[in-house]
Amino acid sequence: MTPQDADTVGRDVLAVLRRVCRRPVELAAHSTLAADLGFDSLQTLEFVAELEDRFGIIVPIDQVPRIQTVGEAVTCVRSLLAENVHP
Amino acid sequence: MALLTLPEAVCAAARTGGGYGYLAEDGRTGSFQSFAELLDDALSMAGGLRAAGLQPGETIALIVPEARDFLTTFLGAACAGLVPAPLYPPVRLDQFDTYLRQTTPAVRVSRAAAVVTSSRLRRVLGSLQAEVPSVRAVLATERLRGARLPAVAPVKLDEAVFLQFTSGSTSNPKGVVLTHRNLAENVTAIAGPHGVRLTDADRGMSWLPLFHDMGLIGMALTVLYKGCSTDFLSPLAFLKRPATWLRAISRTRATISFAPNFAYDLCVRRVQPRDMGDLDLSCWRVAGCGAEPIRAETLFAFAKKFADVGFRPEAFLPSYGMAEHTLAVTFPPLGRAPRVDTVNAEQLSSARRAVPSSTGGGACTDLVSCGRPFPGHDVRIAGQSGRPLADRHVGQILLRGPSVFRGYLDLEDLSRETLAGGWLHSGDLGYLADGELYVCGRVKDTIIVSGRNYYPQDLEQAAADVEGVRKGRVVAFGTQAGGGCDRIVVVLEPADAPPADDLAERVRGRVVEATGVLVDEVVVALSGTIPKTTSGKLQRVRVRQWYESGVLLRPRGVTGRVRLMGHLVRTQLVYARAHAADMLRGLAGRGRH
Hints:
Chain A is mainly α. Chain A is built from 3 helices and no strands. Chain B is built from 19 helices and 28 strands.
């Protein structure tokens, strides 16, 4: 994956997150979904489903609890995309 | 028809063609466990539990996330003559301390002789053995198979069948003791001619957590007693993609599926046209709705959205129930579209009367009928003095009949109070009109979100942890002003003047982190406005009244922002999303169905 692709992933994850938030938020990689963005688990799951649709990946449900911050969401998407490229 | 104990029902089911299907996350693939196989598996489990030293009559705490494992263990325990107490499983291993702190009191109250869990969780639940004196072992379900019990344990109809831990705050849990008779009576009523008229041709579909009464009794045990089948989907799979539920109904040609109001709302908002192409919901003859206040507008929006794919409004079955009444209390007649009573809102709240609203006569409230009690069961509306009230007068809903529980475990005073005069005091407010029940509020200060009950104390405790909140001056309550569902409000006094700008946001964050509940509005009130009393309940009632009448004083500067925040949350996060709380932790409501 080129650095440019990596940037695109990060930007697209933020775009999805802003859409799910439905309110203006300031986002940083360390922002936590629950404490900083006030997400309940239902919103976290909606966010994950939107990520799946946007990137064409499947995030296994047992991996969802690992996504606590914006940065972790980006990491998760990148690693699942990498798996798809090299099955 | 003779009533069966749960072990007898498992044996009888093994002679039918029914069973449990377990669907994978995609809702397509899965495995099937016929009731004959289930009996075999349950007897192996029963043998394993006995070999682990557990004696008939002893209680085991059940913390098992997987549906197949859960049902096999639950029914295995019943076949061994044990009394299972299902508890909600943890979802986040990184917050394990919080989970243990919240679960330990229930395990202690249950006086469980063992905790039975999955091998993955066993490592982290091991500490319960040291924490709770009654617990002799923490066992993994995977290691309990093998030594098959030759026959199910002989139990009597009036012995305890299981404990429902869905009432009470986490710090002060209440174990609802149900007997085999309670269970048999209630499932017979649910399945019978005044219920859903269950036949061999029926098939259930459920994503409800099995540690919740509607999921366990309503969707799993009712079909077991009747010998037909139900397919299970994980709650998370539904919450991640609500369309999975509808697709699974369509694909399995399910006829019966129950869910709380918020689930229908979630489908209205999140199911996309592209998900609906191959849906055919014409098979769905009973779309049960319960476990939390039912909103007419949700039902109508759902019926409208899915009409083109075969959903019929006559399929809706808005119902009322509670764990202390085993599960179901009232059902409307089958095949009737929801009956809505439009009443004058002002009269309802001030005069406690449900006056039908004539056109243009001020603000009105739509209430959905939950139908009538089952044969052999009674519903009465009582005023404050305890005497029965006339039609359309609002009072506490009292219940009587064979589904009423025996009492809370080890809480004699509370049990006596709850069952005073031979009637179960539901704690819910409602009225009767033409023999049908309308539920319109609550006597107690419980907050209901997505079918799960929350206790203000738990929310207040989380909020009090936040730096900048004045000690003892935090009040949490649900308000139903302006709609059927609870909006959660936290009112607090700041410790500093002026309060930190982000205090309200930090409180919201902390509460959702600790309890999974999304607070709709945090009000930072002026110092000295929250009355200091020894009764949290009194404090809550007063502050709520002030809040509802708009007289709460807020420090300058904070008001606008917090107000705006509350407004944004209400309008932009969309009402039910804010209310569809922490389903990961289950729907363990005290259960209105």
